[in-house]
Automatic annotation (TrEMBL):
Molecular function as annotated in GO: glycosyltransferase activity
Family recorded in the similarity comment: Belongs to the glycosyltransferase 2 family.
Keyword annotations of the record: Glycosyltransferase, Transferase
Lineage: Bacteria, Pseudomonadati, Thermodesulfobacteriota, Desulfuromonadia, Geobacterales
Species: Geomonas limicola
Domain Glycosyltransferase 2-like: from-to ranges: 14-188
Protein name: Glycosyl transferase
Length: 306
């Protein structure tokens, strides 16, 4: 542990992943342009949007790097494009930031300051507040129960009264605002694109932790989040990807996976959905189980084996 003379000498690449969310991306961009941290480069990765996002971004910000993936690669795949771009250009840090956020001007400075002070830190996350009601916490650290395939947020929905204002180790860092050191990526690799959506950053954090890096919640870095904006665009996606990826996550990270408990909980959820007549959602859960059992991963429309 020890401070550095000039934390802002570290180059940070801010990766914003956009998929048909141009208005959110523009608002996020403007808040990032007000950051006090000067050694930063914003990069937008567009996951083959159909709302004219790429053209508008290039017109409005001609000097802004906009990377076009060519298809919807999901959270991991799209961000990995940005991560590789950043590392190739000498990034010391990469900050993954959801496009449906706005940031406090000191948000990045605080993340880097703590990262440079806490030498064993590998991945750091912000205090994230609700955009709709900034008095409420969305993320003040996270917990993981790999044996059950469960993750969650500390302080979710609780008023922010300063009770979570200490830098602390955390079970994982949400991909909504995640700062990662270059050396961590070089050691553990990029995120697993087979997840497509959900659990990819949780597994990434666990991989870093197994290599001896600390995961830190950094409350001096404040971000406001518009909850579930991307998920609402994908009918049935949440339950399909959560069902399938939870099972993958357990298989890969739950050394003593409690399968009976998991299956019982999912069966209970199926019965609840059937009672409500939500047959489409039951089909989504069933597809999640089937694709897990048969070893298919990736985007549901373009599944690959393995």
């Amino acid at each position: 542990m020890g401070a550095v003379a000039n934390p802002e000498a570290k180059t940070v690449y801010i990766i914003l992943l956009n998929w048909n969310g141009i208005q959110d991306t523009l608002e996020c961009l403007e808040s990032c342009r007000a950051l006090t941290y000067r050694s930063a480069q914003i990069v937008v990765v567009d996951n083959a949007s159909s709302d004219g996002s790429e053209d508008l971004l290039r017109q409005r910000y001609p000097d802004l790097p906009v990377l076009q993936t060519g298809s919807n690669l999901g959270y991991a795949g799209g961000n990995n494009v940005g991560i590789r771009y950043a590392l190739e250009r000498g990034a010391d840090y990469v900050w993954l930031l959801n496009n449906d956020t706005t940031v406090h001007p000191e948000a990045l400075s605080e993340l880097v300051r703590v990262a440079e002070t806490e030498r064993e830190a590998g991945i750091l996350g912000s205090k994230i507040l609700s955009y709709a009601d900034p008095k409420l916490i969305w993320f003040a650290g996270g917990w993981v129960q790999a044996d059950r395939g469960e993750t969650g947020h500390v302080g979710l929905g609780v008023p922010d009264l300063g009770q979570f204002d200490a830098v602390t180790d955390t079970g994982y860092v949400t991909g909504c605002s995640l700062l990662v050191k270059r050396e961590v990526i070089e050691k553990i690799g990029t995120m697993d694109e087979g997840y497509f959506l959900y659990f990819e950053e949780s597994e990434w954090c666990l991989r870093a932790k197994r290599q001896g890096y600390r995961l830190l919640y950094t409350p001096g870095s404040v971000v406001w989040h518009k909850e579930s904006v991307s998920t609402r665009k994908l009918a049935g996606a949440w339950i399909y990807y959560m069902t399938r990826n939870r099972l993958y996550f357990m298989s890969r990270n739950g050394s003593k996976a409690r399968w009976f408990s998991r299956f019982a909980a999912d069966l209970s959820e199926v019965l609840r959905l059937l009672a409500k007549g939500e047959f489409r959602l039951v089909n989504c859960m069933s597809a999640g189980y089937w694709h897990w059992l048969t070893g298919y991963r990736g985007r549901r429309e373009h599944l690959v084996k393995g």
